[in-house]
Amino acid sequence: MEQAKPRKKFIKNPIQGTKFTIAISSAKGGVGKSTFATNFALALKKSGCKVGLLDADIYGPSLPKLFSINEKPKSEEGKLIPINKFDIQCMSIGFLTDEQTPMIWRGPMVTSAIKTFTQKVDWKDLDFIIVDMPPGTGDTQLTFAQEIKMDGAIIISTPQELALQDVKRGIKMFDKLGTKIIGLIDNMSFFVSEDGKKHEIFGKGGVERTAKEFNKDFLGEIPIYPEVGKYGDQGKPIVESEPEHEISKIYLELAKKINSNFKL
Ligand code: ADP
Fold first, then answer.
1. The domain that contains 251 carries what CATH number?
2. What's the structural domain count of the chain?
3. Lowest mean per-residue pLDDT among 161-170, 191-200, 238-247
4. pTM of the prediction?
């Protein structure tokens, strides 16, 4: 009988210069992943950690806009120097290209860009690198999960069925590739209008149900507030602009909770 071929073993290299690497993932686009990644990174910083933010969305980088960064990173001794903004070390393909230039790249080029960002960036003395993943389950996720030592992933979704369907695929991918899922976040859970009424625009409880179904932790809800988008567009996310805002407090609590799971 023919023997099953042994599976190819991947060597997972840690990103140098950080203690922990956490991926922020959403199976679908437009659910608030980059908004979460930036605000969560800022909240971790406010809770006393040294933080790096790696925008790994090669086709649609958001960090230049969300952090209002227009500089190009310098390179020293073959390594890119991250750009320091709000006391966070930042790197994005968007720092190296024009804002409106479409990235028309094939898979192997994406993989090689990810390798550059994880191995050839001079990250320094960090507690956490927060990686803003592109949506979906493509080359970037695969490269990270197979070749880079990751300490966990947080999955963001809206509570809408259409988004949840993809979340389930995302959970299965991380499980299959052996990346620990720290938990799921329900973003844009509801909107409270001026008359105090709660509107569950995308449905209710969908992310929590999915978490239960897959035996994962549910990390909480983040409501819709127009200020979130406004501050993002201004290049200074809400946690930095208005630390006392209800949304900022949710992020700060989350940062404390997640941070306490890691031995710094
Ligand atoms: P993704 O990275 O998943 O594509 P983004 O972070 O770009 O999503 O968010 C998509 C849109 O939703 C943006 O306009 C953003 O400002 C908005 N958004 C995200 N979260 C919230 C929220 N909690 N309240 C209001 N707007 C939000």
1. 3.40.50.300
2. 1
3. 161-170
4. 0.93
